[in-house]
Amino acid sequence: MLKVSGALLVFFAGWGMGNWRSRQYQQRIKDLQILQLIISCLIGEISYARNTLPEAFSRISEKVASPFREYLQSVAKRLKEQTGETFVRILKEQEQTVREKTSLREEDWDLFLQTLGHLGYLDAKMQIQLLESGRTELAMREEKLRHQLPEQKRVWQSLGILGGAFLVVILI
Q: Which of 78, 90, 139, 158 sits a CA distance of 20 to 30 A from 52?
């Protein structure tokens, strides 16, 4: 009896891992949407409000959920300190604190940081064009992932079930 219940536990653990991976895939889509929201808000802050970058990041942080809120707040704080560090360096340093709390991949963060990296150096029109280009690229990634989602969910859930069943066979 103990062997069977242990085998069932292993089976359900494998199934749970498949479901967990599937949820991670869905969360990546949501995180990409948040990055797009941040960029959209930055476009508004630059084109209409004409706020400084620290003010813009601080205001946008109020519109997004954790961990992005903390990321934007920490960037705003570091920018206000005016330590002489480059904007890109501040973005990258602060990104390390939030990265593991999201489902975004390295290439997602790289695109986001690349999009924001030239803010403050270009005129408003060029900044907006750069932000719109980055937002479009993120939207294309999101759409591709959304299209692949049903298939990926089936794959990860099936792999979880098969992995659990394989471990059950090995244990019995």
A: 139
